[in-house]
């Protein structure tokens, strides 16, 4: 969870509106039912029915207004807290239109006046409201459109749920590499602690194919609800079990039985929260960011729990804030959990930052 501009905003999005046919139908119908005990998550904009309409000339007025607002920002947000510049905001306008408008052929006419009606997934007045929230409140773009592109997934996200970062994708690659060499681990039960949107659980569930299963836990009722929504969209509800609770509390029945354990926990030192990019510090759940005085509270708790929960030969992968935390984590395991773990490795993220600690239970 590297909380800089490059990790808060994806450098790409699909060039056309995402729908089930465009993605080769990797997930089920978006018309999902949820148990009465689970909150109904916000439906991502691109999955909403096009029940609204507006004139082409009115859409052009919105586009021109939104672009003018974006252009006026210049590099002010960058200088303030490494936020988005005008160029990125203008790209977001394009992405927002792609999610909001049903027929993309109208985009070639945006420069023209016309009374032709355009089918929309959101009312034009709400489109104005959404862009005001984006710029005035610095509300994350992912919360505006209700989704994030992560690996080959399109995950529902909303307020109360951490937006999954590109760096965290590498944990799925680590698991893929491990299970490709060990059938026992591939057939086992894995845990994703602090699952948030369910990104890691879903990524690992697809890697395990028909053999293993995943238990995903989170303290937040909102996060569990959103994760359940994403799990159902990808038709993995028979493979991934959601449990609400703090860290290992929902896993008491799995002591000594887990084949693998992964987590992207809160690891930002408390004193650093106020200096985060506005999109992060103001809007994303603090419980998913704040790792205590030195950012290590959750990481150390995870190490202690992993020593009890993993079976012999079980694998773990934890994301950290960087090299200092990685080395502190390895030192803790060697000095305080001697005999529990082996084959430690510190691995880098896409930017070359030492970010992950992986290893095995003895």
From TrEMBL:
SUPFAM superfamilies: S-adenosyl-L-methionine-dependent methyltransferases. It comes from Clitoria ternatea. Coiled coil: none annotated. GO terms for molecular function: nucleic acid binding; protein methyltransferase activity; S-adenosylmethionine-dependent methyltransferase activity. This is Methyltransferase small domain-containing protein. The keyword Methyltransferase applies. Keywords: Methyltransferase, S-adenosyl-L-methionine, Transferase. GO terms for biological process: methylation. CDD domains: AdoMet_MTases (cd02440). Residues 186-270 form the Methyltransferase small domain. The keyword Lipoprotein does not apply.
